[in-house]
Amino acid sequence: MINLQGITKKYNNRKAVINDLNISFPEGQMTVLVGPSGCGKSTTLKMIAGLEKATAGKISFLGKDKNLQSPTKRSISMVFQDGSLYPQMNVYDNLAYGLKNKNLGAKIIDSRVQRMGKILGLDHSLEKRPGQLSGGQKQRVLMASALVKEPEVILFDEPLSNLDHQLRQEIRYEIKKLHNEQGFTGIYVTHDQTEAMTLADQLVVMKDGVIEQEGTPLEIFYRPSSQFVAGFFGNPKMNFLNCTIGEESNGLFLSFDGDSHRLPLPTPQCEFFKAGKELVMGIRPSHILLPRHKKGLKKWTLSGKVAGLQTFGECSYVEISLGENHIIAEMMDLEVPRENASLSFAFNLNHAHFFDRATQKNILLL
Fold first, then answer.
1. Range 162-166, long-range pairs (CB < 8 A, 24+ positions)
2. How many whole angstroms separate alpha carbon 187 and alpha carbon 26?
3. Contact, 168 vs 81, CB < 8 A?
4. Which of 281, 269, 265, 165 lies closest to 231, judged by CA?
5. What is the Cα–Cα distance from 30 to 27, expressed in whole angstroms?
6. What sign does the CA torsion over 312, 315, 319, 325 have?
7. CA 284, 290, 293, 295: dihedral to nearest 10 degrees?
8. Per-10-residue mean pLDDT for the chain, 366 residues long?
9. Across the chain, which distance is largest between two alpha carbons, in Å?
């Protein structure tokens, strides 16, 4: 549907905020651009919309060059984080305004507005003015004003960031539902990992103006290409430990904190596993085995001290001090350990990731 080739964006001949970006946005799918503030995701969105001009490269829709086309001719609607409504108009007229500019008949306009109002739960608020609406209702009106035009593409620029947690969940569900029903091509920008994982058909992780990885949410979560991508997703975040590969007569082992802690490698998992190699091991809190996993603890047992504890109902997160390292483990037990207590644990190496310490790339994917 939309193709970006060699897109670069510079301001005042400074360092590029977008550098040689190449990406395609499939028709009918929701692509989510995710990354930390300043990574270039909103700038990319604005260039697609025509609100910003690329310094170099080509933007095309269905094979047609759009670089010089004005935003009003691109068949695009946008939903902004701080979008504005006409305060003197009620909700109905706000939704109908863009349709009237297209010279659609009164019956068609009314039909579309009433239908979109019902879909987004605004049917009882159509006579209200923006000043009478809650934050969640205003955001629904902004979404409705974009959808009611039935554009080919809808761009979302962090539309939920000003809402509380509960409202974000509700409207995120509405966006997903509408996309499934209407099949529009969507491009959604966010720095929120939950929004990214739940809304995306295609997920694009950006950092410093370039793409770190793209794929489905599950591909990126379970097969992160770099330490940056691995650390961006997950709550709590993935644990990272510097380690070195050593070799003895009975095989390879991982060494943490010098030789203070050793962990045998079951089998060399790839050609990069060689004695002397310096790595970063990444492992999620849910893949750290605690005493209830007796089978796992027979093999690769380590010991540490409980440095902290957070309990969230049936789930607790234990901070474990392992020499110079501090790691977070997930517990589902009702009985949780006391702070400063000794604790045995093990890593489920079948779910561990290993990153080259110099390049930060996942060596299991090279």
1. 162/81, 162/82, 162/135, 163/135, 163/136, 163/139
2. 10
3. no
4. 281
5. 9
6. negative
7. 90
8. 93 87 95 94 93 93 82 84 88 91 89 90 92 89 88 90 84 88 92 93 95 96 96 93 88 81 72 87 92 56 88 87 89 78 86 93 88
9. 83
